Amino acid sequence: MEAYTGNQPYIFISYAHADADRVIPILDELFARGFRIWYDAGIAVGSEWPEYIAEHLNGCTACLAFISKASLDSQNCRREINFAISKKKEPIAVYLEEVTLSLGMEMQLGTAQAIYYNRYRSVFAFVDALSEASTLAFCSDTPRTSQKTPSVPPVPPKNEPKPTPTPQRQNPILPPTAQNRRVGGSGITSTSTVTIGGVTYSGGGISVSGNGGTVLVNGTVVSGSAPPPKGYRDADGIEYRDNGNGTATVVGVADYAPSRLMIPSQCPRGNTVVAIGSYAMQNAVQLSHVSFPPTVRTVESYAFYNCAALRSLLFTSGIAEIGAYGFYNCMQLESVILPESLTAIGSYAFYNCMGLARVTFPRHRVAIGAYAFHNCMSLKTPIPY
After folding, report:
1. Among 75, 105, 117, 126, which is least packed by CB within 10 angstroms?
2. Which tens digits make up the pLDDT trace of 129-141?
3. Is residue 1 part of a domain?
4. 223 and 177 in one domain?
5. Which residues have CB under 8 Å from 128's CB, separation 6+?
6. Is pLDDT of 159 > 50?
7. How many CB atoms lie within 10 A of CB 142?
8. Is 3 a domain residue?
9. d(CA 79, CA 91)
10. Is 278 helix (H, G, I), strand (E, B) or coil?
11. Residue 181 buriedness (CB in 10 A; 0-12 / 13-18 / 19+)
12. Looking at residue 128, which CATH number applies to its domain?
């Protein structure tokens, strides 16, 4: 395998010589698939090493930086990475093993695309994933094809329920106000809170009426002939359902919820919020940014289905599973940093997120369902299937 010396786009390889036994088989496979690569075997005899390296690094179209304990200890490898970033080459970090980055290197590689070699069963499987990086496409003599992309866009399986709009209450509980006054009439009151059977209903302008042993809140029967409704909301319009074990699940959101929504770790009743329920936020077109507390363990199926304006997600360590269709058709979503606690991503989870350009995956292997990132046309990050 010879280092490329022509004038067409090529990939610059940065690696520590101590890692040659792991790096060279990867380069051999890239070379066999038609990729043009340059590495330090191409240095001409008598050349001044730093100038030659800098010249080829400056002229490359893409850069693969193989990260290991040896490369982090190598001053030359660190210089190559710094130089590539200074020249806006946006290196792809290939982690050969688990490493701890220094603060300076973490700052340098924090926004870089990353792929973890040790998560793949073979060199061939790894190169399959690596070849999907869009920045490498220009450096190949062979047109890129993918067996993972079907000719016809997939549709939800027949045994999977298709999303349906969540019925809206005819008389939704409104945001809290300072009102708490008698408005006259036979037992009809406008209030900010009311407690019935040990359950507190909050929200300004609640209309409470009593007649014949039946109590209604905004026209909904909550005492007497029918049980109280399961859901209740906080000041931001987030609706909860108690799970009966000291925990709660988010089951909906009001139209007046803020565009930048911070889901709390506790609901108004003091229960720990552990999940975002199925269909909870579907079609919530007002949401642009959502942050999750560390108590949330699961984002259930269809939770954020078709949130068309959603641009960013802030996950904290805690989430273990993103369900099927969880963020389906969130077309303005731009980047996602998945927490180290994540273990599974369901089928079609980020399907048709056409604006999604970067995904940072955990360092360990994550189970990824079918078509989880299909039709993400802007995605530059290789997916570690």
Report:
1. 75
2. 888 777 788 888 7
3. no
4. yes
5. none
6. no
7. 10
8. no
9. 13
10. coil
11. exposed
12. 3.40.50.10140
Is the domain of 92 the same as that of 205?
no
Residues in Cβ contact with 43 at an 8 Å cutoff, skipping those fewer than 6 apart: 49, 52, 53
d(CA 11, CA 82): 16
Last residue of a domain, one of 227, 250, 282: 227
In terms of Cα–Cα distance, which of 2, 55, 49, 4 is closest to 24?
Answer: 2
Amino acid 348 reads Y
The distance of Cα 204 from the centroid of its chain, to the nearest Å, equals 36
How many CA atoms are closer than 13 Å to the CA of 205, on its beta-carbon side? Answer: 7
Tell me the C-alpha to C-alpha distance, in Å, between residue 293 and each of 3, 46, 238, 331: 49, 59, 14, 24
Q: Are residues 361 and 372 in the same domain?
A: yes
- Residue pair 87/57 in contact by the 8 Å Cβ criterion: yes
My answer on whether 106 and 223 are in the same domain is no
Encode pLDDT of 196-238 as tens digits: 444 444 444 444 444 334 444 444 444 443 333 457 899 889 9
HSE-up of residue 95 (Cα within 13 Å, Cβ side): 22
- Let me know: does 101 contact 352? Beta carbons within 8 Å: no
Q: Residue 104 is part of which domain span?
A: 11-139
**Which is nearest to 190 in space by CA: 198, 170, 225, 176?**
176
For residue 314, give both structure tokens: 């802030």
Q: Tell whether 293 and 242 lie within a shared domain.
A: yes
Among the ranges given (66-75, 153-162, 295-304, 374-383), the one the predictor scored with the smallest mean pLDDT: 153-162
Q: With respect to residue 210, please indicate whether it lies within any of the assigned structural domains.
A: yes
Mean pLDDT of 1-28: 89
359-363 contact pairs (CB < 8 A, 24+): 359/335, 359/383, 360/114, 360/335, 360/336, 361/114, 361/116, 362/338, 363/95, 363/98, 363/116
Pairing, β 238-242 against β 289-291: unpaired
238, 375: one domain: yes
Among the three residues 171, 205, 227, which one is the final residue of a domain in this structure? 227
Q: Are residues 363 and 249 in the same domain?
A: yes
278 shares its domain with 358: yes
